[in-house]
Amino acid sequence: MPLDEVIAQADHVRRERVHGDMEFCGIVNAKSGMCGEDCGFCAQSSRNPSGSGVYPLIDCDRILQIARKAVDAGAQRVGIVTSGNSLTGKEIELVSSAIKRFSECGILPCASLGKISLERLDHLMSAGLRRYHHNIETSERFFPRVVTTHSYKDRIRTILTVKSAGLEICSGGIFGLGETWEDRIDMALELKELEVDSVPINFLVPIEGTPMGKRTVMSAPEALRIIAIFRIVLGKTPIKVAAGREPVLKDLQKMIFSAGANGMMVGGYLTVPGAGDTCDRALIREVALSWGR
Ligand code: SF4
């Protein structure tokens, strides 16, 4: 189907099901690098000599300071993100204290801490956590070509644990890794079946030193088609465009909202900078105006 027709269908679904609701998220990269996993796209794997920042878990005050900056850039929710497969008990305590401080400051807290037990999720919920992030990353079929140190089933297991704890789950993936359209459609169907509460869409930003560092950046029309297909499949579920928005969409960033997205990440990403707060805020204002909000 021509791209303009797919976009028109997605826009129709967005108007009917999502109306003018918009969601903007920010992140705090609270622990960076030194990761024992081997995700082929990630600059934080210790197997990928990318030169990206390496530091242990930062303290509560610093987490709060970065979160406030994300709120200034337009974020309503801020996720505390840590590298690695999972955190230690002591690290969970620190994140739990930060979540309490978020709640006291009126910031909606999210967390992306890798694999986690029900008991730890309960603990974080009592501190005020309501949503957890854990991507499926790609399709089940393509997953072993991207990561070999854990399985797709491991990721689904964590998502189901989060849901059984009673938390909302934010789960999406990353595109431009060499996956096919069939993989992309399988991802959308999987996320629909999992009844996730929010879907982040990332586009690969190839980073030197990672196994995917030589891949080319996806074209804007391809990215817009992915967003539109996800909107058509996922109906009213919030769809947010995250990393890769700027290098992939360039001057067409506003088009992500016509293609069906109703949110985006603001204030920069884990290992790559964003467009800057001024550009993000201008884009939010422009979309709000055109949606009549
Ligand atoms: S995506 Fe997460 S688990 Fe995978 S290498 Fe990067 S930090 Fe580690």
The order of strands across the largest sheet is 5-4-3-2-1-9-8-7-6
Could you tell me the CATH topology label: TIM Barrel
Report the helical percentage.
40-55%
What is the averaged pLDDT score? 92
Find the structural class using helix and strand composition.
Answer: alpha/beta
Q: Report the uncertain regions.
A: none
Descriptive report:
This protein has a single domain (3-281), classed as Aldolase class I (TIM Barrel, Alpha-Beta Barrel), CATH 3.20.20.70. α6 packs parallel to α7. The protein has a 9-stranded parallel beta sheet with strand order 5-4-3-2-1-9-8-7-6. The longest helix is centred in the N-terminal third of the chain and has 16 residues, at 3-18. The chain is an alpha/beta fold and 293 residues long. β4, α5 and β5 form a beta-alpha-beta unit. The chain contains 10 helices and 9 strands.
Question: What is the element layout, followed by pairings?
Answer:
Elements: H1 3-18, E1 23-31, H2 60-72, E2 77-82, H3 89-104, E3 108-112, H4 118-127, E4 131-133, H5 152-165, E5 168-170, E6 173-175, H6 181-194, E7 199-203, H7 220-234, E8 239-241, H8 245-249, H9 255-258, E9 263-265, H10 277-290
Helix pairs in contact: 1-7, 2-3, 3-4, 6-7
